[in-house]
Amino acid sequence: IKGLREQLFNQKIKFFEFSKDWITYKVSDFLAFFSTNSLSWECLEYGDGLLNVHYGLIHQELPILIDLKESKLPSIKNEYIPNKYTLCQEGDLIFTDASEDINDIGKVVELINCNGKSIICGLHSIHARDKLKITITGFKGYAFSSQQFRKQIQQLAQGSKVYSISTKNFNECYMNIPSKEEQSKITDFLSLIDEKIANEKKVLKILQQQKVSFLKELFI
């Protein structure tokens, strides 16, 4: 899927029904940024309440599109809930602002199907929203995961042992945006492939569990 994604966003592959040129935007011109919290893992738990997206989850396990019907996020323990915070909305982006690996700096997820849940952004994250409403829900996660953007942010990252970025870096990044109709086609196409990959992983996990069970029975 990574190779297909790069070809789509480099416009080496195009859907035949779309002929309009993509428009180039400075990222900071169409994204608005909001404050985040700095709560550690010790302040979180898995349960009901105010959900919190910790940067560690983005690095480790969360998919590009976080579907709250499928993905489970930790909540903030009552005693650590911040006095002020900005709730995430459908289609909001969450970037990681720190990483020991240059390839993971600025890694991003997009929230879809929030399902009425209250979600805020946590430690080492950047919370962003399309203030111009030029994108559809689901498209941004794939767009900001493309090499078109990733190479830009990696060049701007600072640090030696730990790389970091800030919202100011988005003033120097650019993104090509197609029509909303083409965005929808791209998003549906990539989402379908992601769904197939997820299903294959589930099958693989079942087979691995069966193998372990068979080995126990065979070598008693």
The protein's oligomeric status is: single chain
Sheet with the most strands, sense and barrel status: 5 strands, mixed
Q: How would you describe the shape?
A: globular
H/I helix tally: 6
**Radius of gyration, CA atoms, in whole angstroms:** 19 Å
Give a concise summary:
With 220 residues, the protein is an alpha+beta fold. Helices cover 33% and strands 20% of the residues.
Describe it.
It is a single chain. By secondary structure, the protein is α+β, with helices and mostly antiparallel strands. 33% of the residues lie in helices and 20% in strands. The protein has 6 helices and 13 strands. Strands 2-11-7-9-5 form a 5-stranded mixed beta sheet. A two-stranded antiparallel sheet has the order 1-13. Strands 3-6 form a two-stranded antiparallel sheet. The longest helix is centred in the last third of the chain and has 39 residues, at 180-218. The mean pLDDT is 91.
Write the layout of secondary structure elements.
Elements: H1 2-9, E1 23-26, H2 27-30, E2 31-34, E3 44-45, E4 51-53, H3 55-60, E5 65-67, E6 75-76, E7 93-96, E8 98-99, E9 108-112, E10 119-121, E11 125-130, H4 139-143, H5 147-156, E12 163-164, E13 174-177, H6 180-218
Parallel strand pairs: 4-10, 5-9
Antiparallel strand pairs: 1-13, 2-11, 3-6, 7-9, 7-11, 8-12
